[in-house]
Amino acid sequence: MDLSARQRRSLTAICDTFAPGADGVPSASALGVPDAIAEALDLNPRATERKQFGLALAAFDSKPMTAAGGGGWNRFSDLPQDKREAVLRSYADSRLMPKRGLFHGLRRAALIHYYGLPARDGGASPVWGAIDYPGPLGKNPDAPPKALTPAEPQAQMECDVVVVGSGAGGGTVAGVLAAKGLDVIVVEAGGYYDDEDFDGGELDGLRRFYLNGGGMATDDGNIALAAGAVLGGGTVVNYTTSFPTPDYVRKEWATHGVPDFDGQAYETATQAVMERLGVNAEHSAANPKDAILERGMRELGFHVEPIIRNVGPACDQGIDCGRCGFGCRRGAKRSVTKTWLQDAFEAGARILVRTKVDTVIVEAGAARGISCTTADGRSVRINARGVVSAAGALHSPALLKRSGLENRNIGQHLRLHPVTVVQGWFDEEVRPWEGTMQARYSDEHANLDGDGYGVKYESGPLNPSLLLPFLPWQSATQHFEYMAAAKFSAACGIIVRDRGEGEVKVGRDGQPVVREQLAEVDRGHLRTGIEGAARILEAAGAQRIFGSSAKLVEYRPGQSGSLASFMAESDAVGYENGQVALGSFHIMGSARMGGSPVNAACNPDGETWEVRNLWVCDGSSFPTAPGVNPMISIESIAHMNAQKIAARLG
Ligand SMILES: Cc1cc2nc3c(=O)[nH]c(=O)nc-3n(C[C@H](O)[C@H](O)[C@H](O)COP(=O)(O)OP(=O)(O)OC[C@H]3O[C@@H](n4cnc5c(N)ncnc54)[C@H](O)[C@@H]3O)c2cc1C
């Protein structure tokens, strides 16, 4: 995005306030952060959002805005560092949600680029040296060549079933249907990347493999939304935690008018998925960050268990594993690219990449194919007897609405499993960016109300790009000090099984727009999780414990403050959007299955109530949040519904 002189001055001042550099460490602008952000803005497909951001930037440096932020009648860029920091803090503390959202958006953008960019000459960033982070690992010289060959899009194509999106849902459907002899075409908007392309680089990884270059968020900017956008979708970048759907969730889902969830069909599907993904318990070595969590959980007498994972013997559970969120360069992750899409390809399915589906073609109430556009602007029409929308829980509802479907449940009932983090500093070196991505979990507080709703505790691969969105920024000095101590920190992630619902609306441009406000009950559970996580870290021996509140809230067990003061201060900041940093890695429920068109977008077979031979098979299909990491559930639903699709189109 081209910035005006005023916007550039504003962005430069903001970036340098977040990261002014010192003692030989360059400032954000010296590293090229404002230019990199301007470039990254182009990865947002929404012109209106780019324009709004541009307007906000231009206004930010105006005298009235600076005065409103407590900086007097001055331009923000003319203020000294301490005054600029105070203005930024006024945004973080604001009672107005959009101001908090702007703060979080700017903070994420400035700091993820600051800690992610290489040096200007392309070499190692001096910032990595200053925090003792090794930077990208580099490519694997022994990586095998790619196993799949994408097909060349033609102006007109024909098949039995066209699958839109190739992630957990789409990949599975394609594999099952092609193995049953149906002629399948998979259309994926993202590119095809495999072992030979992965180098553990964060910024480049976000840009190439994540939706909107990793910059997707709710429309108020307060909840960062992470989703994969490559061949294989989220399964290429996810953390390989492989929980099947819990029985109590299956029973709850069955009450939504889909009895199969509690029956043999779903059981068989889950078994097939677990087997094809090679889910096993042999790759859950507790690295330092997970050993710390386990220590704390055991000390408290909490439930704790190893996490089962879909990886093969090549998983090193070490340095490489920690970077797997940017693709596994050892080929150990059993993503759908390595499994179901491989099956589909071997059975003759054609796979189109870098091709976006615009609409489903509907004639006489039935799906007849799709129209799509290649990255170089060519139009493609694919005629088919059936269409499966598996574009993920943001883009599937958008596709259905763009195609004229009107069921009011499309885009409703969105669940996000909102995540926040509590961190602790330890005497021992943890290097939380190394080792098994997630090796231990606890369900100690998974059932807070007696009906299976609560929080799950898990760790995560804390590379700077994952750490930064949750690390409080009170001042540049404080923040840099905390980044420099990151190698001594372990984090306890809190995943809320959300009862409240968000919404995916569709802009005039056809793009998804996400609205989500945490329901009161979910905020209560989040609070319980924050307290539980602090207790775990304290029991594990943390020297200093801090949360992800918009203000720095912390205590030093036995030295200053206490769990009680920590919770009182967290409560004072609050748990509304933006008062605590939130992210989502699990986007679900926005075109759900159910027994009636009154409360569901799709019928118990996953077919839309409105259009025959149009199915949805992805995270959108969930009747409610599962409370566990969703990949296995998504693939199980896709596997189960694929049997029904095959029976229809056989
Ligand atoms: C960083 C991260 C870590 C995670 N860790 C775990 C974990 O450890 N365990 C777990 O169970 N889950 C995990 N998840 C969640 C899990 O990976 C996702 O829930 C799952 O991949 C979603 O599957 P899906 O089929 O709904 O969509 P996706 O896998 O997101 O696939 C949708 C695909 O559709 C494509 N698409 C979108 N629009 C179009 C269009 N118009 N035309 C063509 N293609 C389109 C997208 O590019 C994308 O590739 C993680 C997710 C992330 C982002």
Automatic annotation (TrEMBL):
Residues 509-638 form the Glucose-methanol-choline oxidoreductase C-terminal domain. The keyword Transmembrane does not apply. Keywords: FAD, Flavoprotein, Oxidoreductase. Transmembrane segments: none annotated. Belongs to the GMC oxidoreductase family. One of its GO terms (molecular function) is long-chain-alcohol oxidase activity. One of its GO terms (cellular component) is membrane. The keyword Transport does not apply. It comes from uncultured Solirubrobacteraceae bacterium. This is Uncharacterized protein. Residues 209-419 form the Glucose-methanol-choline oxidoreductase N-terminal domain. Gene3D superfamilies: FAD/NAD(P)-binding domain. InterPro entries: FAD/NAD-bd_sf, Gluconate_2DH_su3, GMC_OxRdtase_N, GMC_OxRtase_C. The lineage of its organism: Bacteria, Bacillati, Actinomycetota, Thermoleophilia, Solirubrobacterales.
